[in-house]
Design goal:
- The complex is a heterodimer of chains A (194) and B (237).
- Chain A contains two helices and 14 strands; from the N terminus they run αβββββββββββββαβ.
- Chain A has 194 residues and is mainly beta.
- Chain A is elongated, with a radius of gyration of 19 Å.
- Chain B is built from five helices and three strands, in the order αααβαββα.
- The longest helix of chain B has 31 residues.
- The two termini of chain B are 72 Å apart.
- At the A-B interface, α1, β1, β2, β11 and β12 of A face α1, α2, α3, β1 and α5 of B.
- β12 of chain A pairs parallel with β1 of chain B, so a sheet runs across the interface.
């Protein structure tokens, strides 16, 4: 009896689980989680069909209430080394910064208006500039992380409700400074559509 | 009393049942249930026992923090550019002419007088008799209508000018305020320019005071915004 049950248990562990991308869009695999020190950890990792393939979330910042415009959270006490991975969700109007699957910061963003929409997709950071002045709109773009040569970038902005950008992604300045400090040229940014 | 062997056998039995259920779910094609069971049932057991974990979709965590979706009604305007760049770096502001070139280059002539070409006297509205006399035939009294209060001149048959042209007419007296009845045969009522009181009315006072309050609030708000924006290095994108 014991041997049979042990064999069954081992066999059940060897059966491959369903890959997240085999699921339908919007369907997700629920993962065990635990909350500790303001962080929700997923020990088995988390991925979803709506997330990019290379992003496996291992922990998220525990924010159980709505953030307001201009709010941001940053917690890099967790030991994470590796490339910075940025996830922008235009629909939720949020940005999340990951490193090794751990979320280091999140903020509310501004994105492009209907006339000058923000493109969605996966981009690489092409250029970093502490001080930059837009040559299209005659405006300051501090802590700029350029995504496209067309001028779309992540930069500090005055994030207020009811406002929009010319296609850039505006983040609070303190958040932008922290993000600028850890982001490197070539890091991947994914913008989920609105 | 539960012995150690009984507990172990119970655990193994539960594992056996779980394995059977998962196997049948595979055959039924219900992969999601299997995955949830395998990941949440087996692997989550020690973690959940230690920390009291819940199985909630992590995407819900990302949605909880969202300030909400943007609606078209929320989109008021694009951001304004800051006057000053961060850390006191003053950048030269480009002077932009805010005039449409069509407006600037287009010559707009003076508007013609509304009553015809200059030099031609306006057409008199009243028929002028050749001999300079007003007759009852040319300016008949209007049919009597209910006269509104305030009329100072009621045309009757005796009020029509019948003086000969050789007589010096009486000097013009200032027209008293109020509606004047002009006997043109069509009962046209014209309003003379009334007196404008020197002291504004209460509604005007209220509007002016509210405007002063509004200007003060705007200045205060703008200064606060500029202070925070300079601190936040905000800029339009």
């Amino acid at each position: 009896m014991r041997r049979v049950s042990l064999a069954l248990f081992a066999a059940s562990l060897m059966i491959p689980c369903t890959h997240p991308h085999d699921l339908a869009a919007g369907e997700a695999i629920t993962m065990p989680r635990r909350e500790d020190r303001g962080r929700i950890s997923f020990p088995l990792g988390y991925s979803s069909a709506t997330l990019p393939r290379d992003l496996h979330i291992r922990s998220l910042l525990a924010i159980d209430k709505r953030m307001k415009f201009g709010d941001y959270r940053w917690d890099d006490r967790i030991a994470a080394t590796g490339a910075t991975r940025i996830l922008v969700n235009l629909r939720l109007q949020t940005i999340s910064v990951f490193r090794d699957g751990h979320e280091l910061g999140t903020a509310v963003i501004l994105y492009g208006s209907d006339g000058t929409p923000t493109p969605s997709g996966t981009f690489r950071i092409l250029e970093r500039a502490r001080h930059h002045r837009s040559n299209l709109y005659d405006a300051e773009m501090p802590y700029m992380l350029r995504l496209t040569m067309g001028g779309v970038a992540i930069h500090a902005s005055s994030v207020r409700e009811g406002f929009a950008t010319h296609g850039c992604i505006g983040v609070p300045a303190a958040f932008a400074a922290r993000l600028f400090a850890i982001a490197r040229k070539g890091d991947i940014v994914t913008i989920l559509p609105a | 009393m539960l012995s150690k062997s009984m507990l172990l056998s119970t655990a193994y039995a539960s594992l056996l049942v779980a394995g059977l259920v998962s196997t049948t779910s595979i055959f039924n094609g219900d992969f999601r249930f299997f995955t949830g069971l395998a990941s949440g049932g087996l692997a989550a057991a020690p973690i959940g026992a230690a920390t009291g974990s819940r199985t909630i979709d992590p995407m819900d965590d990302l949605a909880l923090r969202s300030p909400g979706f943007r609606t078209k009604g929320m989109l008021q305007m694009k951001k304004r550019s800051l006057r000053s760049s961060p850390r006191g770096q003053s950048s030269p502001r480009r002077r932009v002419e805010r005039v449409l070139p069509g407006v600037r280059d287009h010559f707009v002539p003076l508007a013609p007088p509304p009553f015809g070409p200059v030099g031609v006297p306006p057409t008199p509205s009243l028929p002028v008799p050749e001999d300079g006399r007003w007759t009852e035939r040319m300016a008949p009294p209007a049919p009597l209508t209910p006269i509104p209060p305030g009329f100072t001149f009621v045309p009757t048959g005796e009020d029509i000018l019948t003086e000969p042209p050789d007589r010096v007419p009486a000097p013009l007296t200032p027209i008293p305020p109020g509606p004047i009845f002009v006997p043109t045969g069509e009962d046209i009522i014209t309003e003379p320019p009334g007196r404008v009181p020197a002291v504004p009315e209460p509604s005007t006072w209220v509007t002016m005071i509210l405007g002063v309050f509004g200007v003060g609030a705007a200045v205060r708000r703008r200064s606060l915004w500029r202070r925070t924006a300079t601190d936040a290095l905000g800029a339009p994108g």
